[in-house]
Amino acid sequence: MSLTGCGKTHGKQLNSSGLPVIMKKTNFLPEGEEEGVKYMFKNKKNARIIAIGIVAFFVLGVVGIALSQSGSSQIASAAPASNVGVINYQMIVSQHPDMATAQTTMQNEVEQAKKDFEEKTVSMNDKEKQDYYAQVQQRLNVKQQELIAPILDKVTAAIKAVADTKGLAVVLDKSNVVYGGQDITEDVMKKITGK
Predict the structure, then answer these.
(1) What is the DSSP annotation of 122-157?
(2) By residue range, what is the domain housing residue 40?
(3) Fewer beta carbons below 10 Å: N end or C end of the chain?
(4) Does 68 fall in a domain?
(5) The pTM is what?
(6) Percent of the chain clearing pLDDT 90 (strictly above)
(7) How does DSSP assign 163-185, residue by residue?
(8) Are residues 88 and 144 located together in one domain of the fold?
């Protein structure tokens, strides 16, 4: 059975093939604007003016970027005289004299926790073992924080003392700095070790 043979369109428009029109051609430009756009690009003089305007805008943008980059290099060359310090924080913490004692204490805690875990979990099922393991892990994390917190406090105090002496307003970790800043790692290490 053919749809064209029904004879009823139910108020719908049909195209030249006899099928209902689903969507009309839509013009997104306001009325009269379409002709203006066509005219603007048909006239070669207008097209040339637009092209020159685009090129001028591009060239001015490139020149602006170049000027801003040359200005920042002057600022970067003044970095050693800045009031920003940089430090290799991880190295300072790992080489702190108290760190060896803290690591030894932590290793002893881990060994004791392993022994306790093996003894206490012999008669436990898997769920109980997992729960107990989580408790042991949490206890070890707390112990590690207790051992390292005083060391971090001492490192922070040494950094602050050196920064105040050198008149530095900000001290950043070296891993966060690409260029510039006054390296105070050795001064802080001397402050900590007393050498």
Answers:
(1) TT--HHHHHHHHHHHHHHHHHHHHHHHHHHHHHHHH
(2) 11-77
(3) N
(4) yes
(5) 0.53
(6) 5
(7) HHHHT-SEEEEGGG-SS-SEE-H
(8) yes
